[in-house]
Amino acid sequence: IMFYCSEKEANIKVPDFEIKDSEGIGFTKDDFEGKVLCVVFNPEYTREINKKIKQLPDINNNVAIATVIEKNKMFHNPEKLKDYKQKYNFDFKLYYDGKNYFENIFAKMPYVFIADKEMKIRYVYDIEYFYKGNFFYKKISERIKMLTATTLN
User: Fold this and answer.
1) Structural element, H or E, at residue 127
2) Model pTM?
3) In the chain, what is the greatest distance between 2 CA atoms, to the nearest angstrom?
4) What's 17's DSSP letter?
5) How does pLDDT run across 59-103, given as a tens digit for each residue?
């Protein structure tokens, strides 16, 4: 299988949003401010990204990894998300974006984006052919580490 991951640099302000976790608790952009925010749109990727971040214990407190599930026919409420989380035994929070806040800022939905501490999206990742290799996860963890160490203007 060919593997291709495109990394695009960006400078887009994260939109105001309200997402809910699988327990129905709401979170807004303000809850993540001051941390590097890695938004992942596929829980399987989150598992691998978490493994890489755990290898960098010095940055754990400065990073928020949010796995966001967009509203669609399969996931139309937090209860469905709770069932999905239990079925696949995800050991991290899943967030439900009932208003598709993120879909509205991208021409094509990415697989992952990373925002700096000031909530500016700095890196966007699209995958054309996905292979569960280390390159994709390593690149993301390197960017997260870099953003936790510096404040970009």
Assistant:
1) strand 120-129
2) 0.84
3) 42
4) -
5) 778 899 998 888 776 766 777 888 888 898 888 888 988 888 888
